[in-house]
Amino acid sequence: MRKYETVFISDPDLQDQARLDLYDKVKNIIAKESGILLNFDEWGNKKMAYEIKKKLRGNYVCATYGGTGDLVKELERNFRLTDDILKFMTILLSDDVTLESLEKEVAEAEEAAKAAEAAVEERAKEAAEKAAAAAKAAEAEKAAKAEKTAEADAAEEADKAVETDEVQD
Question: Is pTM, for the whole model, over 0.70?
């Protein structure tokens, strides 16, 4: 078994559902040919260096997987038959890989993704706490300012009352 990486560029004008169907088709081909999908990374729409099929932009996707040469042949055959694929390239990452090492790599990638998701959630929670503390501090400052204004108004009224008493005397 070998480890491959295929980067393909799909039509940027595809609807979201059609794009997802295309991704599912690629994943199904890998599974049907007894391959193991390690990573399926969508890079998004990017400007291409040159025009391909009258398109200046393309939706880039990188798929890393383990399989045989027959898998690569079948995948590339389907890419050639599909009009939605503008360009593709497959490279061999490692020549001799065991099934166990690929499964271990998949498990590690899933753990890393979970850890990254937990870290994002923790940062969001901390940001929410900071925002709540800042809002509380702003509210306290506003209340203190209102209290000072009320005290100043009361002192001003007291001064006016004293002045009117002095004027009456």
Answer: no
